[in-house]
Amino acid sequence: MRNRLMCTLIITIATLMVAPLSSATGQKYYKDDRDYAEREEINQTYQLAPGADVELSVIAGPVEIETTNGSTAEVHIVRMGETRKDLDCYTVAIDHTPNSLIMRHKQMRTDECQNIRSKQQVTLRLPRNIDLKLNAIAGPVKIGEIDGSLRMSGISGRVDVAQALGFSDISGISGVLSISIPRLSDKGIRVSGISGKVDIKVAGDLNADLHVSGINGDVNAAAPNVTINKVGHSQFAGKVGAGGSPISVSGISGSVTFRSE
């Protein structure tokens, strides 16, 4: 059983490490910005209705999202390419309606554009009352306070979430995950497939049921309102406060810590 668990974790980790890069069609990501001689900026503002869907996908580089109480979305994207051809072979397409803002890497389907050397830096200032989705990001991600739902998958880099209030589904991260939970929706939060440690900050008055499984590391209760016990091989169960909405954590290659917010 232990060998089966370790095999599953190794396969999951290997998948996480390549998923964000392979999702960007022919897009090669290099860490040193000095490799990119060609650059262009995208600066746009949009109005969004409360509860709007915001989606960002297939980005080779860091993403930082600040949130506000307003209704204006500010988009700042730096597109980079090693050569002019690399830069001309792709764009970051933006589709907007009052109820949605979708940004994604879009690459030309020609022979000369099959493999390009490119990178992006994305900085967004968004209303906090939105539903946010991020997919296939090859770089660190930092997110401010979100009132709506949060969905993330295929992230190659550290992820920091200042505050998540709605349902959160976070999976496929190759890096450390740090998230603060002041309160939960009825559906709670689900975290799975993380190649790195998980740090969950819980509020002092939070009530939640804890379910932890498939962990290749320690599980720590570092907050006075958290109790957790081992109930099986790599399985743990516990509560935050009096118990309530579920916090489910599974398939983690690293430690899991519940600490005070």
How does this structure look, described?
- The protein has two helices and 22 strands.
- With 261 residues, it is mainly β.
- It has one domain (2-204).
- Strands 1, 2, 4, 5, 8, 10, 12, 14, 16, 18 and 22 form an eleven-stranded mixed sheet that branches. The chain has an eleven-stranded mixed sheet with strand order 6-7-3-9-11-13-15-21-17-20-19.
- Strand 19 (226-232) and strand 20 form a beta hairpin.
- The longest helix is centred in the N-terminal third of the chain and has 22 residues, at 2-23.
- It is globular and about 55 Å long.
- The chain starts with a helix and ends with a strand.
- Mean pLDDT is 89; it is low at 1-24.
Could you provide a short overview of the structure?
The chain has 261 residues and is mostly beta strands. It contains 2 helices and 22 strands.
What would the keywords be for this entry?
eleven-stranded mixed beta sheet, mainly beta, 10% helix, 261 residues
- Tell me, briefly, the overall form: globular
Total beta strand runs: 22
Strand portion: over 45%
How many domains in all? Answer: 1
